[in-house]
Amino acid sequence: MNETDLSPAVRPARVVVGVTGSASSAAALRRAVFEARHTNSVLVPVLAWEPPGGETVYRMAPEPRLAALWALRAEERLNAAITASGGIPDDVAVERIVVRAPAAFALNALADQAGDLLVLGAGSRGRLARFLHGHVRRCAAATAHAPVLLVAPPASPRKLRKELRRITPEDFVRPGRPDGD
What's the predicted TM-score (pTM) here? Predict the structure, then answer.
């Protein structure tokens, strides 16, 4: 046995990014691509999912066909989110992961070494939105083993935000054709 057999397996540094499909997640994915390219690391976009109602509810009435369908939908959401954010350049090594687990747990389990970087979307800047939707981000950042980079969502102009708040369902109704049909 030689000396190299005793050394632990060396894996390249990774940039692990949580992907949900939100604007904040898309900004985090774009930044993760930049970081992976800049550091010559492997990009690991992760979409974690759980059955509707959680694992406890699923265990009470398991349905493998539904679980397979949910896993397929999660894979489609990951691919759609990557495409919507501009895609991943060919010169970046990528390892796409769809995992059935709580998101914060899965992200921290994947970004488990000192050379890794965990990139997360910082979410909305409002207090109420952070309180209601920031659980995964707070939990992942608090228990991370690797450095965490929080990426702010893209800003939208104030006038546009005011207009979007006034939209009603009737704004999406197609008007009738001119001939009365």
Answer: 0.73
